[in-house]
Design goal:
Layout lengths: L11 H10 L3 E3 L2 E6 L2 E5 L1 E13 L4 E9 L5 E12 L1 H4 L9 E4 L2 E3 L2 E8 L2 E2 L1 H6 L24 H10 L11 E12 L4 E8 L4 E6 L3 H10 L4 H8 L3 E10 L6 E2 L2 E9 L4 E4 L7 E2 L4 E9 L5 E7 L5
Parallel strand pairs: 1-14, 4-15, 4-16
Antiparallel strand pairs: 2-3, 2-6, 4-5, 5-12, 6-11, 7-8, 7-12, 9-10, 9-11, 13-14, 14-20, 16-19, 17-20, 18-19
Length: 313
């Protein structure tokens, strides 16, 4: 696996791939405050991340933090954990992020969620809720045996939704769901606080034909593929890729660098792994890679590409 910084030049074709199929982006915790348009991330000057222990696989993501309040006063703030937007297509395999768990100092706590219905960046949550339409499951559309909420609406409401582009002519939902999990957290003065999240990731998927040189080269560039994996790709007719992403750069919303950062990435036996990462990754077993970094300031987010061998698809 090749470790380097992202280059500014990215092939347009692969950008289109990423917009369509790579939708799963998890984020580090951040301070937050309630604004006119909802939760807004903010910087917390007197609280640092003393330790972040991050484990990523396709079946589980677990991240444990140790925060320290450096001031002589308790700091109480809202903490937000945003998850990626998703569509009806994404939800066909089950609603994402429905097993999100938060623990503070070893005890599970309740959390709130801010749910929005977005279309072209505009929030239509109020309109849908006034019509009695649930946002997170597209009015029940994502259920195994979905109900078409559209049929129950008045002709006036149907017209409103069609005119705004929230549904097509058949009543198929077009909005994207945005969720931010959040809770109120107190960091005691001159003390540390342990916070942990555990959840099942929802991964992206795509494939490309290696006889399409532009597609192959675009992927090698974007995924920071090393020479060994590049040769393997060239020996395949098609390459199947799963993706899991994680936002590291929100760590900058806390005081200073992450004092101790520990990352473990796990794969399956039949997979190869590539990613761009501004640290050194060491292979510690047939299925795991590990990195330790002191005083870490993330410069880029993680996008992990799991390449499937043809026999292990």
């Amino acid at each position: 696996m090749k470790i380097r910084k992202n280059k500014s030049a990215v092939f347009v074709l692969l950008i289109c791939w990423l917009l369509v199929v790579i939708k799963i982006v998890f984020a580090n915790d951040s301070g937050a405050e309630m604004g006119a348009s909802g939760l807004q991330l903010k910087k917390i000057e007197n609280v640092s991340v003393e330790m972040e222990d991050l484990y990523i696989s396709q079946k589980k993501i677990e991240v444990a933090y140790l925060f320290k309040n450096h001031s002589d006063k308790d700091i109480t703030t809202e903490i937000a954990f945003p998850v990626p937007e998703y569509t009806t297509e994404d939800a066909q395999r089950g609603l994402p992020f429905d097993d999100f768990v938060i623990e503070v100092n070893g005890e599970k706590i309740k959390h709130n969620s801010e749910i929005k219905a977005l279309l072209h960046g505009k929030d239509y949550s109020v309109i849908l809720r006034k019509m009695g339409i649930s946002i997170h499951d597209f009015g029940g559309f994502s259920e195994p045996q979905y109900r078409n909420f559209y049929q129950d609406l008045s002709e006036k409401n149907k017209k409103v939704l069609r005119n705004k582009g929230l549904v097509d002519d058949d009543g198929y939902p077009s909005w994207r769901v945005s969720i931010k999990y959040h809770w109120t957290q107190t960091f005691p003065a001159k003390s540390t606080t342990a916070i942990k999240h555990t959840y099942t990731p929802w991964w992206g998927y795509f494939y490309f034909s290696t006889d399409q040189t532009a597609d192959k080269n675009a992927f090698i560039e974007r995924a920071c593929v090393n020479a060994d994996i590049a040769r393997w790709i060239s020996n395949q007719s098609q390459v199947y890729v799963n993706t899991v992403a994680y936002i590291l750069t929100t760590a900058r919303n806390w005081r200073g660098p992450i004092k101790e950062f520990h990352l473990v990435i796990e794969k399956k036996d039949h997979q190869l792994v590539s990613l761009c990462f501004d640290g050194k990754l060491n292979k510690i077993s047939d299925t795991q890679y590990e990195s330790y970094i002191k005083d870490y300031i993330p410069k880029q987010n993680l996008m992990i590409y799991y390449l499937l061998r043809s026999s292990g698809r």
